[in-house]
Amino acid sequence: MMIAASTTPAPQRQEEFIPENHQHNLALMRTLVAELPDQPLLAPIKDFNPALKLEKAILRFAKEYAGLTSDYFSAPMMEQAKGLSTEQALYCLRDIVRTKRFLQAIDEAITKLSPGKEKIYVLDAGCGPVVILGLFATLASEKVHCTCLEINPASACFAKQIAKAFGLEDRLTVIYGDATKFKSENNQKYDLIISETMNTALVGEPIVEIFNHLMQFIAAEGLTLPSSIDFKYGYVNSEEPTFQSNDFVQYGSSEGDIFIRHQLDYWKTLFTWKPGEQLDQICFVHPLPTDQNSEFYYFVGCDVQLGSYRLAGFDSNISLPLALESFGDRTCSKGSPTGVIKVNYPVGEVYASCTGCINPRAQIELY
Questions:
Q1: Quick one: how many helices (H) and strands (E) in the chain?
Q2: Higher pLDDT, 338 or 121
Q3: Alpha carbon distances (Å) from 297 to 56, 145, 192, 332, 340
Q4: pLDDT in tens, 24-65
Q5: SS3 11
Q6: N or C end of the chain: which has fewer CB within 10 A?
Q7: Pairing of strands 172-176, 258-262
Q8: Maximum distance among all alpha carbons in the chain?
């Protein structure tokens, strides 16, 4: 006897997004975000990143419901100076504490903005291919109308397909273009402006330039993420144990982006930058440590304030202490009661060392 094939659709798995079901999709998104750890992964974990669960759930859904068929991982790198490749943008999403803190801060900001508003206008500069920040903001409240800017055409294309898959095209708009040249349609003002286009120590990415341009479109009482950035400077004694045993911190990829956690002897804030404030150069002179019998390595970095949330130290690639360099190697010197370290570099400039790292230069003067 032949049995007719069942036409009943397979039940939706609980950890899958559902077309047009914004309430379910928001709840699932919040669950996946809550599962992200509050600290970077430690060795020997190499092939697992909790952010992959969130990323893959979004991409599976977009593939099924918006025909996302291209492998964005193989999309070509940008040849121009600005903008990340789709692959590089993916590593930003996999920077797990960074992703969690930004999404938590967006949830907090929208809750704060919501009373008394019929619509909440959000602008996300540098949304990447998975458009995670804009997607979460739009799901978080039906009041949100989000505009996402992306300079990489491949990433912008994928972001549009993801917005389509979630049925949010009426409230989530992706624009291909340079955020530093963005023109607000009808002079629209935005209640929340977001950008994570930054690297630690404000090297390599244009967050300052982007906010300098976009702050003309901020609404009265509007919010920004980041709220502020503390620029940090410090050093570690090279003759003492500088590494914690078995304490390797994984950020982006499962292979290359493995960093060793240092115990810094000194780590202080030199200044605080807020979006919209003019900042062209990082320029400071700081006394060297006074111990003349020891050698020291020197570092710069950032603490990133996101509403009531914070990324600090080894939480993320964008707060990680970054070694200052001299002659293609880490700057190292004896302490001196009268010596100084001089640092001067343009904000956002890429410094390519012999190892391919992005490191600003330093000059030691001993007296």
A1: 7, 19
A2: 121
A3: 40, 47, 39, 5, 13
A4: 999 999 999 999 888 876 554 445 667 778 888 898 888 888
A5: coil
A6: N
A7: unpaired
A8: 97
Name the one residue in this structure whose structure tokens are 């704060």.
Answer: 112
Q: How far apart are CA 225 and CA 211, in angstroms?
A: 10
pLDDT of the residue at 8? 45
**In this structure, what DSSP letter does residue 50 have?**
T
Contacts of 367 (CB under 8 A, 6+ apart): 336, 338, 339
Cis peptide before 226 (omega within 30 of 0): yes
Instruction: Report the alpha-carbon distance of residue 135 to residue 19 in Å, rounded.
Output: 14
Contact 104, 304 (CB under 8 A): no
The residues, ordered by sequence, that sit 6+ positions from 114 with a Cβ below 8 Å of its Cβ are 120, 141, 143
Strand 258-262 to 266-273 pairing: unpaired
173-215 residue pLDDT tens:
999 999 999 999 988 999 999 999 999 999 988 999 999 999 9
Structure-block tokens of residue 238? 């090279």
Return the structure tokens found at 333: 């010197």
Residue 12 has φ and ψ, to the nearest 5°, of -75, 130
- Nearest CA to 208 among 348, 350, 82? 348
360 Cβ contact partners less than 8 Å away, ≥ 6 residues apart: 201, 203, 282, 300, 322, 324, 325, 343, 345, 349, 351
CA–CA separation, 99 vs 97, rounded Å?
5
Q: Return the ∠ at Cα 347 (arms to 345 and 348), rounded to 5°.
A: 115
Alpha helices (runs of H) in the chain, residue ranges in sequence order: 22-34, 51-66, 86-93, 96-113, 132-140, 153-165, 207-214
- Whose tokens are 């060793």? That residue is 260
Q: CA-CA distance, 61 to 367, in Å (whole number)?
A: 63
Token couple for 319: 């707060």
What pTM was estimated for this model as a whole? 0.87
The identity of residue 287, as a single letter, is P
Give the DSSP H/E element, type plus range, for residue 120: strand 120-125
CA distance 358 to 345: 12
The CA distance from 217 to 31, in Å, is 33
Closest CA to 180 of 149, 146, 159: 149
Residue with more model confidence, 191 or 67: 191
Q: Which amino acid is it at 227?
A: S
